[in-house]
Amino acid sequence: MKKAKKRLGKKRITLVEIASAAEVSAITVSRALRNPQSVSQELRQRIQQIVDDMGYVPDAAASALASARTNVIGVLIPSVTNNVFADVMRGIYAEAEASAFRVQLGNTRYSLIEEERLLRVFLSQRPAGLIVAGVDQSESARAQLLQAECPIVQIMEVGHDPVDMMVGFSHHRAAFAATRHLVERGYRRIAFLGARMDPRTQRRLQGFVQALEEAEMLDEKLIVTTPRASTVSLGCELMSELLARAPDADAVFCNNDDLAVGVLFEAQRRRIAVPHQFGICGFNDLEIMAVANPALTSVRTHREEMGRKAMRMLIDRIGGKHIEPRLIDLGYELVARESTARNAGAPAPV
Amino acid sequence: MKKAKKRLGKKRITLVEIASAAEVSAITVSRALRNPQSVSQELRQRIQQIVDDMGYVPDAAASALASARTNVIGVLIPSVTNNVFADVMRGIYAEAEASAFRVQLGNTRYSLIEEERLLRVFLSQRPAGLIVAGVDQSESARAQLLQAECPIVQIMEVGHDPVDMMVGFSHHRAAFAATRHLVERGYRRIAFLGARMDPRTQRRLQGFVQALEEAEMLDEKLIVTTPRASTVSLGCELMSELLARAPDADAVFCNNDDLAVGVLFEAQRRRIAVPHQFGICGFNDLEIMAVANPALTSVRTHREEMGRKAMRMLIDRIGGKHIEPRLIDLGYELVARESTARNAGAPAPV
DNA sequence: TTGAAAGCGCTAACAT
DNA sequence: ATGTTAGCGCTTTCAA
C-alpha cells in the first residue's frame, strides 16, 4: 500500500523526474528544453528521448512563477462575431504563430465595465504584451494600462495620446471621404445608416456630418441610427425606416458593409434602381462588396494588416527593439464601384 | 542605499505585503479574497480596502502552481474568420461570462499538426476543461486528449467514440435532407459546390452523394470542389466553373452559405432565373439567407446553442455533476425559402 | 475564524 | 557545459 501523499492531486511527471531518469540535474533538463544549444548534443538527445517516453508536459504556471514572465499576448476586442475583428484577429494570429507567443482573447462586448474586468484578469497573468481595441477606455482601465509593465498597442484608431503604441486609421477622415464621394457623384439627399453606435461609428458619423455641412446638404432627418448590432437584415430594416422618414433620400453612407448589403437587398425588393435612383456606399470593403449586383462601393480598411502590425510591434518591443514611430496610421482607400456610379467624375448639376 | 535584490525584476505588490499592512497573515488575505464568507465581516472590509488602495493584483501563476488548478477553458477551433465558428464562440463566451472561467482560444487553421502543438501548449497550463472541434484528431492528439485530466467536449459533429463528451449534429444526414429537398422540388441535375473540403464538408458531400444515388441522379461531373477557403466570391467562381462543365445543371447544394450567396450573384449576372431555372440551397442558415433576393434556402444549424451547451457541460462537470447523456445531437432544420420554390410540394414530373 | 509551516514545479543567479 | 541553492507568490494541510 502506498503512503498517503502530503499534498494530494494526480501526479504528473515533473522536471525532477526527467532529470533523475537522465541522471542529470533539473536545471540541465530545463535548459535542454528551452535552449537546446546550451547543452551537449548527446545529452540533448537523451533528454528529449526520455521526455517523449515519459510524456512530460512542462508546467506553465511554475515556469511563469519562477521566471516572472509568460509568452501570453492578451487581446481585448469588443466583439468576436464581427467580421471586422475577425480579420484583425487573423492578422494577429498570423504574426503570433510565427513566434513563441500565444494569444489570449478577451471579448469586451462593447462594455467598458467588462473591459476593466478583463484587463484585471489579463494583468494578473503578467502578459508579455497587450493589444486593446480603441482609445475610449474608462478612466480606471486607462490607469491600469498606464501602470502595466508590458508593452501595449491600441488598434483600430489613431488618436492623440497613445497609452504606449498605436496602429489604426482615422474613422472621421474615412467617413468624410466616403461622403464627399457621394456628393461628387451627384447625390443630394445623402443619408447615414448607423448600427451599434460605438465610438468608432460615432466618429464616422462626425465625418459624415462635417462633409455634408461643408456641402450645405446636411439634413438630420437623413441620419438613422440604432444601438443594435449591425447585420444584413438590420440594413433592410434601417433602409425601410429611412424611406418612411425621408422618401426623397437618394443615397446612403452605411456605417458598415453588412448594412450596405441589406440596403441593396431592400432596394431590389422595392424596385429602386441602384445606382441611378439611389447610391450606396459601405464601410470596410468586405469581400462580398465586389461581387454583389451591382458591385458595392466601400471604404477599404486594412484590418488584417492592422493586426499583423500590432503584433509585430509588440514582439519587436518585447525583444528589446526601440519602436519608432509609436503611432502608425494605416489609412483607408475609397473603392468606387457600380453602386455609386450615377454620374461618375462630373460635378453635380444644380 | 538599498541593498541589491537577490532576484531582480520589478516588484509588484504581493499577498504578504497586503497581509502585513492589514496586520493579519497571508492566508487570511488569500481567504478574504477567494472566499469572503470565511473571514469576519470587519476583516473582510479592511482587507478589501487595503487591496484597493495598494492596487494589489493576484499572481495567477502562483495561484495555479499552489492549487494545481486554473480557471482556463481551452477552445480549439480550425478558423477564427469563419462565421460558423464565430457563432459557436459567441455561445461559448456567453456561457463562460456568467461563470468564473476564462476562455483561451486556439486556432488550428485546419491543420492536424497545429492542433497537436496547441493541445500540448494548452495542456501545459492545466486547463479546467477543453473544447475541441471535430472528431478527426490525429492519433497523437487523440492520445493526448485521452490522457488529459480535465473534462473535454468535442463539438460540431456526432460520432461513435467520444473522447469524453460531445455536442453536434450529423453533417451527413443534414446534407442528405437538403439534397432530398432539391429532388422533391423537381430539380434533376443537382450539383454540389464544396470549398475547403475539411472533414465536415466531406461528410456533407457523402450525404449528398447518398441522396442522389438513391434517386438515381448522381453525376460526378456535377460535383465541384476546391481546397480554397469558402467566400462569396469563390461561390461566383465555382458557379462559373460548374456551368462551364455542365451547362444543364439546374440546382446546387452548396457546402455553405457564403458559396450559396455567390452562386446567387453569379446567376443574377448571367440572367439565370432563381428558382425557376436554377435552385440554390446553402448550409448553416446565416442571417443573410433570409433577406437575399430571392431568399435562400438553407439548412439551419444550432451553432450558438452548440457553444453554449458545450461550455455548460464542461462547467457542470467541473462542478462535480455527473453528465448524462455524454453525446448530444442538436440536429438541424431545413429552412425552405424562395430559392428552391420551383415546384413546391408536388412530386417531380418525369 | 485565524495562523504556521511546508511546499507546488520551475528557473535565476552564481558557481565550477 | 553542467550543477547548487534559493526562491517566485500563492494555497494546502494541520493546528489552535
TrEMBL record, chains A, B:
SUPFAM superfamilies: lambda repressor-like DNA-binding domains (SSF47413), Periplasmic binding protein-like I (SSF53822). Residues 13-67 form the HTH lacI-type domain. InterPro entries: HTH_LacI, LacI/GalR-like_sensor, Lambda_DNA-bd_dom_sf, Peripla_BP_I. Coiled coil: none annotated. SMART domains: HTH_LACI. Pfam families: LacI, Peripla_BP_3. Keywords: DNA-binding, Transcription, Transcription regulation. GO terms for molecular function: DNA-binding transcription factor activity; transcription cis-regulatory region binding. This is Transcriptional regulator. The lineage of its organism: Bacteria, Pseudomonadati, Pseudomonadota, Alphaproteobacteria, Hyphomicrobiales.
